[in-house]
Amino acid sequence: MSYQKNILMVSTRLAAVRSRLPVAARSAKFVPLLSNRFYSKTTPKTIAPLFTVSRNTPSTSLSNVRGRRSYINGSDEETPEGLRYTEEHEWLALEDGNLAVIGITGYASKALGDVVYVELPSVGASIVAGEPIGAVESVKSASDIYSPVSGEIIEVNEQLDKKPGLVNAEPYRRGWICKILIKDTTELESMMDNNRYQTFIASS
Amino acid sequence: MALLSKLPNRTAGPSCICNLARWSRSQNKTINRTLANNANSTPLLQTPLYDLHLAHGASMHPFAGFSMPITYETQSIIESNKWVRSQAGLFDVSHMVQHIFTGKDVTAFLERITPTDVRELAPYTGVYSMFLNNNGGIVDDIIITKHTDDKYYIVTNAACRAGDLAFLQEQKKLHGLSDISHEILEEWGLLALQGPRAAEALQGLTEFDLTQLKFGNVGLVPVKGGKYWVSRSGYTGEDGFEISVPKEETLGFTERLLGESNSVVKLAGLGVRDALRLEAGLCLYGQDLDETTTPVQASLSWVIGKRRRLEGGFNGYEVIAEELKNGTSRRRVGFLSDGPPAREGSKIYEETGVKLIGVVTSGLPSPTVGRNIAMGYIEKSFMQRGTEVLFDIRSRKRTGTVAKMPFVPPKYYR
Predict the structure, then answer these.
(1) For labeling, which of A19, B8, B137, B379 is most exposed (least CB within 10 Å)?
(2) Is B227 strand, coil or helix?
(3) Which of B78, B79, B3, B92 is nearest to B45 (CA)?
(4) For residues B93 and B278, what is the distance between their CA atoms, to the nearest angstrom?
């Protein structure tokens, strides 16, 4: 199970993915999901969608857009508002209704210590909620990552191959792990919000 | 409070691949237990440096019945590893058991229960050794230091305390050697100062010329406030010293060492100690060695003295002589790999992935080497350096190669 780095194959997969997107997104001019490099020109202040769904925004050229992806307000120290959390210390950011970005929380990455290796899931894999989708390794331990939702893995953060330390440095930003196209959004309802997660950490 | 890095697996129990939540919850429970001194469980013992560790932001964790520092908040394990190998790290290993044996029969006794050439060991010299049972199996790995023919200082593992004491009692009776006095330096401090600048740091505290102390030597070193037995030894592969200090003087001495070294010496915990010893190719009893392992299988035949190989007279000699002559079915070797680290318990297959040929007993990503290192036991026919193997890691086969140990060349002061 190795994930494909071939651009041609990824774009074929994208076509399949696009057909499952909400209608508005499908027909809008949006930046393709080809690569992490392609963002909206505006620096997002809140949870940033992967692609903007507005017909008024000029389409961005694939070749020269750079921008910082950010899923949070504030610093990486705080557990962000607006994300959902699991008891296994994963966070989930929801975009456009059914695209979920998954990572592990700062609490977990701090507990692990320096992350030296991240085992990423394969693009295209079908996932059931609760299934292990990878692992995070530090000098002294290895921990499984569990998917909070069911769906299909459509992107993994390949930056983590060369820079596993991003999980420690930016657990909510560049340390994201994978993106899942969700089948059943009701699975999100059982996840915790920031307050409940903070309470959970404090009491465990 | 930050959670702890995982302990050496032997004390943590379950396999190292664990659910983040379950693991972190158990870590927290353990911290709470330590703090609360729960009446239902035995309170953890403390070394003389317990308060110092807390003051330096240590993450404490139970180990062999003691509350021990695993990491300190000022340095990650990787940073601490680099520090010890370039500056100097100070380890509190006071949990280990320090024994003094005196009497005319001690030499003969030690020659029965270890394969070391104790009789010819030079005075004021120490060596790595092991207690052996009747099958030639290793009861514990130890350091024996001879002071004189009638006086020996021995350090044994904290986690093996009960087993070692029972073994020593039983062996004394068995061999009918009576002129043996055995004292344990209860609650004494034991400090390991390790690193290229360890000598410089310790020299600042004493007039004693430390250049006279070569690797393996021990000397009574005067420092302001006392005189302590200092041996030029350690378990990291670096130059360094192990210092035995009476209980009441341990804290004062440690604070002076930290304070007067101009920030060269930093406290280091058991987490980095495990990485350092594995990089040096050194075994951890309970993981890499146990009672079913002989020194020959463990690739530790060098511990057996030349004279002892010919003359015998130690526990398990028949088994070991046979293994020395005809070889063993398995041997401890080192491994290098990339990708996910192979850790304790990982099965080893030969390169087609069909046949199970061994098991990993210790493994982690090496901060110094920059690759994954491991040691384990493998069928003898696969033990050559460079042999390609496969590790089973989370149900996937990952490549690795048999490699030479130590992974980091030693820098002993000779």
Answers:
(1) A19
(2) strand
(3) B92
(4) 17
Query: Is the ipTM of this structure higher than 0.85?
Result: no
Residue A35, pLDDT > 60, answer no
Selecting from A87, A113, A119 the residue whose C-beta is nearest the C-beta of B340 gives: A119
Q: What are phi and psi of A30, to 5 degrees?
A: -140, 160
Q: In B, residues 282-341, which contact A (CB 8 Å cutoff)?
A: 339-341
Task: Note whether B274 contacts A: Cβ–Cβ < 8 A.
Answer: yes
Q: Which of B17, B274, B343 sits opposite A144 (nearest CB)?
A: B17
pTM given for the model = 0.81
pLDDT band at residue A98 using 50, 70 and 90 as cut-offs: confident
- CA nearest neighbour of A30 among A50, A55, A61, A51: A51
Q: Which two tokens mark B291?
A: 């009672």
Give burial (CB, 10 Å; 0-12/13-18/19+) of A87: buried
CA atoms within 13 A on the CB side of B169: 6
How far is A175 from A156, CA to CA, in rounded Å? 11
Q: Tell me: the pLDDT tens digits for A138-186?
A: 999 899 999 999 999 999 999 999 999 999 999 999 999 999 999 888 8
Neighbour tally for B126: CB within 10 Å: 25
Nearest C-alpha neighbor of B121 from the set B148, B155, B142, B154: B148
Helices (H), A85-171: 106-112, 159-162, 166-169
What is the DSSP track for A23-37? HHHHHS----TT-TT
pLDDT digits (tens, 9 = 90+) for B155-182: 999 999 999 999 999 999 999 888 999 9
Q: B20: which chain A residues are within 8 Å (Cβ-Cβ)?
A: 88-89, 104, 108, 111, 136, 143-145
CB B229 within 8 A of CB B189: no
Task: Tell me how long chain B is.
Answer: 414
* CB within 8 Å of A104: residues ≥ 6 apart: A89, A90, A91, A136, A145, A167, A171, A175, A177, B20
